[in-house]
């Protein structure tokens, strides 16, 4: 069936979703900054 054929776009989307999920998980487990510090640096820069 056609659905059995690999679709490069689908594969790319799957990879991007996988990477995004890894990044989200990493941010949750190890936040690189405190939100207040981020806001302060944004306003003062």
From TrEMBL:
<protein>
    <submittedName>
        <fullName>27635_t:CDS:1</fullName>
    </submittedName>
</protein>
